[in-house]
Structures are given as C-alpha cells and as structure tokens.
Amino acid sequence: AQRVTQPEKLLSVFKGAPVELKCNYSYSGSPELFWYVQYSRQRLQLLLRHISRESIKGFTADLNKGETSFHLKKPFAQEEDSAMYYCALSGLSGGSNYKLTFGKGTLLTVNP
Amino acid sequence: NAGVTQTPKFRVLKTGQSMTLLCAQDMNHEYMYWYRQDPGMGLRLIHYSVGEGTTAKGEVPDGYNVSRLKKQNFLLGLESAAPSQTSVYFCASRPNLAGDTQYFGPGTRLTVL
After folding, report:
1. First vs last Cα of chain A: how many Å apart?
2. A44-86: per-residue pLDDT in tens?
3. Closest partner CB to A34 (pick from B90, B101, B107)
C-alpha cells in the first residue's frame, strides 16, 4: 500500500527564516512525488514535482530514495508563503492510473 | 480555456436529500477524479475515471456514485446525504501522459444538516 506522512500539522516561522516541511512516503514501485499548495479557500495548485527538479517561488525539494523522503525547503520564508502544503505520491506509469495519495497536510504560517 | 470547473460552489442539504455535483474540464483529459477534503485528513480519493464510460472506486467510495457519460464531465452523486458527508469536494483531471500532473477545480463546499 502507498502512504504519505507529513509529521507536522502546523509549522510557524518568522519572515526571513528558513523553512522545511517534511514528507516521508512508502511505495513498492517507482513513485512520482509532488508538493501541492493551497492558499486560503482556493484550489490546490502544483508547486513542485520531483522529476522536473525545478525551483518554484524559491522552494526546492529533493527525492531521497534511501530515506524515502521528499522534504520541501525554502531558505528565506515570506509572509505570502502562508498556506496549506500537501505532499502527494503517484505511480510513475499509467498502470497506477495516476492516482494521487496525499499526506494530511502541513499548515505553514509565516509571521512578520 | 476554463480548465476544471465545478458546480455548485456551495450547497446545504438536509439528511436524506440527494444531489449531484458536476465537474467539467475543457482540456480533453482522459483521467478525472473526485476527492473530499476534511480537516486533519488531507484529500481522499472517492472515485475516479480513466476514460469516457468508465469509473472505479477510490479510497472512500461508500455513499457516493459517479458517472462519466461524456469525456469532459464527471458527476458525483449523493443518493441519501448524511452529516458525515459534510466536506469540501474537489474534482481533478489529467491527461494520459507520463510526467504530467492533476489539475484541480475550485471545490464545492457541502454541508449536510
């Protein structure tokens, strides 16, 4: 069975501080990992996916297959980063029907 | 190109009433999904579809039915609503293309009294 664990429900940091949102997963095959962000009462938006290895809004995430982790990091948090962040996992191929398994989310608050 | 849209945006039902939520996408995507979002639970997959005329159960399908008569529409039905179905419902779609992702609708906030 596939599982995504986000150990922190809430995370509060001050503006300019580094932030790390943790994500661990379990999956028997080749996973594809995503981070989605949801600003207050809005739809989910894709933030990052591991296969593209890009940096969006200053966020990065590296897939660590040894530790089965995909932590989201930003060196200097901004107030506009305050949102709910979801880590999600999908099978890499169409055989999984690209179903997403979500973690329970981490609510990030960046204080001024 | 509207992307993924959902109607209605809000709805209040009484226990036992029925309703249908509509999801529409104009991106010609093969796959469509219905999730529910509850505090502290993240998003959980209710049902999904891999193409027109096909549907399959997700993680929490009980109490819901779905239909995909047209490729662009995915309907979620509640035959007899219960307070436990109070939630925010999100629809998503994606193409059958490795490396792409799911695109989400704006959500429907449903309250069952």
Report:
1. 41
2. 999 998 877 777 889 999 889 889 999 999 999 999 999 999 9
3. B101
